[in-house]
Amino acid sequence: MNNLDRLFPAKPEEFADGYLSYLCSVLQAIDRTEVTGFIGTMLAARQSGARVFFMGNGGSAATASHFANDFAIGTCSYDKPFRAISLSDNQAIITAIGNDFGHEDIFVRQLQVLGCAGDVAVGISASGNSLNLIKAFEHAKTAGIKTVAITAFDGGAMKAMADEGIHVPTGPKEYGPAEDAHMVLDHLVSAYLMRVVREE
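Now predict its structure.
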């Protein structure tokens, strides 16, 4: 039984209070040094002109899109941009790869075409065990592309294989708090990057 299951049954206001209290405890438990490392990687990618590829499935696909939007456009850095791209966004490409080669290849084949040594691949997954992200990370390792895992639950295979990452320590199958926290990380990091650009 995970922490959300323990909150129920309850009245809606009691469940809301418990959920929000638990989410606060999850956010407090995030390792700030991991956040600092991720910010450093994004700043280094910007400095070198490297591309940052965000990837995720389901709710994490939406988070990948949000990261790419906030970093590439929200930072308002056009002379020296954050070259952030979401590999979860092009439905024609995703469905072509899925139909012709299999869903497990939807990210790796895009990375094979677009990625170069020195780029960064950011995989977003609550479980850390999505096969299509793992395959993309395996390719990245051979291609000189840095890997960053943004995970939850126990971190799964991605946490173990990534060059660096941010782990959100939730219980198993707590997708809501995991994805909530991932979006907080997006807004936290993009707010910092925006202010770095503003101060230049």
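Residues 175-199 form the longest helix (25 residues).
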